[in-house]
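Weekly puzzle thread! Below is a chain. First person to post its structure in token form gets bragging rights.
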Amino acid sequence: MKLGSRDIQMRKIMAIAALGVVGFGGVAACGAATPAIRQPRPPTLLPSASAARAGHDGVAQDIARIAVGNGGLAALDNGDGRATLAICDPGTVPNLHIGTPMSASCGISYSDGSVWRQTVTVTFDSHGHPVADWTDTGTELFQPIGG
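Winning reply:
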């Protein structure tokens, strides 16, 4: 079944709305999306003094940026597509200890059209640069387009 551009546009609107709902009961969510054209960027220094001052909101924003490839690591990949939009709930960031992995519950839209609620965890080197990220299995909120 081939979807028209109007159907795809409506599906994207629904997916973005679902990502907003992922904020668990109206908790403010922080997000990041991949830009249309990627520019080389220096790695994000997540556990820096500025991130620590920003608290859970700043960490959630940084994790969302890293998840979509805007923080020194490649975008997350679910096997069928790469993460294109991530909205992470700052209320789910369990710790702010420099030198430990940091995580947040995120709504993630992938390039295949699927939308998932997943916990994203990021580990850092001794200089605060992200060195690895991964997700749990999560819950699929929307299936891929045509799937």
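Puzzle host: Confirmed. Bonus trivia for everyone else. Residues 5-142 form one domain.
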